[in-house]
Design goal:
about 0% strand
Length: about 290
């Protein structure tokens, strides 16, 4: 007499815009502890066999800050037009560093875990989300340092515009999640995307108001279609959201009209983009093992 065996079930996510998304969200939630382990692994891997350890989180942004403050602020005279130039740059770098680390790292999120993909089933989205999580740890540390710096300079942002910080952070997270899911899926088949993303991030940095203020753009192309094209860049809006929230010395600087609504629009775009990217990811993940 043989024991009754449980019915076989498929590990393939169901299709459908709503049912498939719900299944994937539930699968990730049920394995949230594994996601935490992957995030801790990624963070620990950065500082393994390192003497300074987590201090390296601040090394790159502080080095870039020093270069930009000296080269652009002092030599090119930007600090004469932008008050508290160092805090202004560090605010923009905090948002941009998270964006570039998460988006750039997502191109190898699945490829770098090929052994797991080929040997065991688990929601492949975990790999993309772990990159976002480890990048968020870095950004969190930088944000704490930034807040300490504002307090040290007597410019702690205790004003009503501080409410833009959580809204901008949510918009940034939604945008990053959409791009990370899309790129991590596509790069499995199209490896050249890694290099294209690197070039795109380099160009995107200079198309966002990180080391120059929106005032310079408005003075040159204000009221023209070029200004609207510039404001169509989601990271431009997010960076200015961070700046208006944390850069108290720029309270009298010009800002785009309806900046709050623009940030909200980026948030909605990011949420819809995340849904679309996850659907693309789900359709392609069945071929990951074969592609790798």
């Amino acid at each position: 007499m043989t024991a009754d065996l449980p019915p076989l079930t498929t590990s393939t996510p169901p299709q459908g815009a709503v049912r498939g998304l719900t299944y994937s969200i539930a699968a990730v939630w049920h394995r949230r502890e594994l996601l935490g382990m992957l995030v801790r692994r990624d963070v620990a891997a950065r500082f393994s066999n390192s003497v300074l350890g987590a201090l390296w989180v601040l090394a790159r942004p502080l080095a870039l800050l020093a270069v930009y403050v000296v080269a652009i602020g002092t030599f090119l005279g930007a600090e004469r037009l932008i008050p508290s130039f160092a805090l202004f740059v560090f605010t923009g770098l905090t948002a941009w560093t998270f964006f570039t680390e998460a988006v750039g790292g997502s191109t190898t999120a699945v490829i770098g875990n090929a052994a797991l993909v080929k040997k065991v089933y688990l929601p492949r989205e975990l790999f993309s989300l772990s990159v976002i999580g480890s990048s968020a740890v870095t950004a969190g540390v930088q944000l704490i340092v930034l807040l300490v710096a504002t307090a040290a300079f007597g410019q702690f942002p205790l004003h009503s515009d501080l409410a833009l910080l959580p809204l901008s952070a949510l918009a940034l997270l939604a945008l990053v999640t959409a791009l990370a899911l899309l790129l991590s899926a596509l790069t499995v088949s199209y490896r050249d995307l890694q290099h294209l993303v690197e070039v795109g991030l380099l160009i995107g940095f200079w198309l966002s108001p990180i080391v120059y203020s929106y005032r310079l753009v408005a003075d040159e192309v204000g009221g023209t279609w070029l200004e609207q094209l510039y404001l169509a860049n989601p990271m431009t809006i997010i960076a200015m959201g961070f700046q208006k929230a944390l850069w108290i010395a720029g309270a009298d600087q010009p800002w785009p009209p309806d900046l709050e609504l623009r940030i909200l629009a980026v948030l909605v775009l990011g949420v819809l983009g995340t849904w679309a990217a996850q659907r693309i990811f789900a359709r392609r993940e069945g071929d990951f093992a074969q592609e790798l």
